[in-house]
Amino acid sequence: MKDFYISDCVRQENKIVTASFVVVSKQIKPKKTGEPYLALTLGDRTGQLEAKMWDNVEDVLEAFEQDDFLKIKGLVNKYKNRFQLTIHKLRKLGEGEIDFSDYLPKTTKNIDELWQALAAFVASINNPYLKSLLLAFMADSEIAAAYRNAPAAKTLHHAYIGGLLDHVVSLMRSCDLVCRNYPQVNRDLLIAGAFLHDIGKIHELAYNRSFSYTTRGQLLGHMVIELEMLQGKLALVPDFPPDLKAMLEHLIISHHGQYEFGSPKLPMFPEALVLHYMDDLDSKMEAMRAHFEREADLESPWTSYNASLGRPLLNTAKFLAPKKTPPAENSSPSLDEELQEVGAETRPSKSAASQEQTPPLHGLTLPGLEPRR
Asked: Are the C-beta atoms of residues 38 and 26 closer than 8 Å to each other?
């Protein structure tokens, strides 16, 4: 197990660390002088980190490639409010030095239970065409295995093994609740849209050594891939209604909700609108949860800047937690202590006690403190 993870950057800022990482991306760029420097994206199971190597670059240019594992010594610092690593030394790790569990994050939830939850939602669909279609996807052993293991995204949300299944089951639960409040929404169509909306991620993303895009994923994107997958499975469902097919296609291509987010069409019917907003909500809530988890050890309720959400975040659990009361200092005596001291000074000695009765404490007058009437 590694001693340093990327999530530890907050506690190791401006310190030298030695740790191992997987190379998510590798670029060779020119300095202003024309000499090369290395620009890397490094990864482990807690996230990704930009890294630069400025000196002695020629010695290591050909020593490794993308998806290799490196042992690195360098300085953790910040640039434009984002952590980065300035590399001093590096070497490629041998296969025997690699513990793959250090580099690919995995859901803490039970995959079998998530798959059973997905199957239960599919079984609850009343429309026979939609149910037969989704069962055809689940019966495909290659698709099912990938659906159970794929991440839902490269970095933004549910970026871990099992993340796609975790995201879809969570999304189906939210959609189910919304349907109870809006009876005009077709639940069968919405649940089918939730099942299909990201299924193309199983081909868009590679996740053997690190999370990256496949060539097909780079060229087409998951929505185009999903339309191809849909067409293939529709052939297994006789007499599938053309209008229902068009609605499924619209759910797929509109679920990002905005043109600038990659959807060629905006959501145009209730189920498409609900799918977009519930998908967006689930992804953002997971992004927040993951950020709070990464910085759980920090005392401040405010997190560092979250790039995907474009803001720092307030951890309400920390913010509303009872504040720790610092121990009281004994530098100045309390009023009760002062009164006790004065009472002791005015109390007669034992020898005089038989001759003079001790005056009551409430009769004392201190400077600036009048007795109560």
From this structure: yes
CA distance 223 to 204: 9
Q: Report which secondary-structure segment, H or E, holds 254.
A: helix 242-254
Strands 82-92 and 47-53: parallel
Nearest to 84 by CA among 27, 7, 9, 4: 9
How far the first Cα of the chain sits from its last, in Å, is 73
Closest CA to 199 of 140, 243, 261, 259: 140
Helices H / strands E in the chain, number of each: 13, 9
Report d(CA 17, CA 85) in Å as an integer. Answer: 9
Round to whole Å and give the CA distance between 294 and 232.
Answer: 41
Only one residue has tokens 């998951």, namely 222
Given a contact cutoff of 8 angstroms between Cβ atoms, the answer to whether 204 and 214 are in contact is: yes
The single-letter code of the amino acid at 28 is I
Q: What is the dihedral of CA 184, 282, 154, 250, to 10 degrees?
A: 10
Q: Can you give the pLDDT of all 373 residues of the chain as single tens digits? A: 788 999 889 888 999 999 999 998 899 999 888 899 999 999 888 878 999 999 988 889 889 998 899 999 999 998 887 899 999 999 999 888 888 778 887 888 899 999 999 999 999 999 999 999 999 999 999 999 999 988 877 666 677 889 999 999 999 999 999 999 999 999 999 999 999 999 999 999 887 777 778 899 899 989 999 999 999 999 999 999 999 999 999 999 999 988 988 899 999 999 999 999 999 999 999 989 888 887 887 788 999 888 888 999 999 999 998 887 766 665 555 555 555 655 555 555 544 444 444 444 444 444 444 444 4
How far apart are alpha carbons 188 and 181 in whole angstroms? 15
Q: Is 332 exposed, middle or buried (0-12, 13-18, 19+ CB in 10 A)?
A: exposed
Write down the residue that tokens 């309720």 correspond to: 301
Q: Is 0.85 surpassed by the pTM of this model?
A: no
Q: What are the angstrom distances between the C-alpha of 81 and each of 86, 188, 225?
A: 15, 45, 36
